[in-house]
Amino acid sequence: MPIFAVHYTYTEATAADRATHRPEHRAFLNALVDAGTVLTSGPYPDGTGALLIFRAEDQPSLTALLAEDPFAKLGLIEAVRAVEWLPVMGAFSE
């Protein structure tokens, strides 16, 4: 199954709301970790965004899944860039 690198971009304007809704966002992602859909995720230390690594059937399936993220539903993500990724070495290579 393809692996995708997803980059979320955040703005300072949404920082307080993201802090408020972070538990729901992380619960959503933790369920996907348990299902094997999210391989890893985490924010950038400077607060500008996050990197999430997903397994998904295809881009449309991933797009639909990302739309279910509580941060997305609440408009707390400024931009999303999702690209198929081909790891050739390390933990995620096959």
From TrEMBL:
<dbReference type="InterPro" id="IPR011008">
    <property type="entry name" value="Dimeric_a/b-barrel"/>
</dbReference>
<dbReference type="InterPro" id="IPR005545">
    <property type="entry name" value="YCII"/>
</dbReference>
<protein>
    <recommendedName>
        <fullName>YCII-related domain-containing protein</fullName>
    </recommendedName>
</protein>
<comment type="similarity">
    <text>Belongs to the YciI family.</text>
</comment>
<dbReference type="Pfam" id="PF03795">
    <property type="entry name" value="YCII"/>
</dbReference>
<feature type="domain" description="YCII-related">
    <location>
        <begin position="4"/>
        <end position="85"/>
    </location>
</feature>
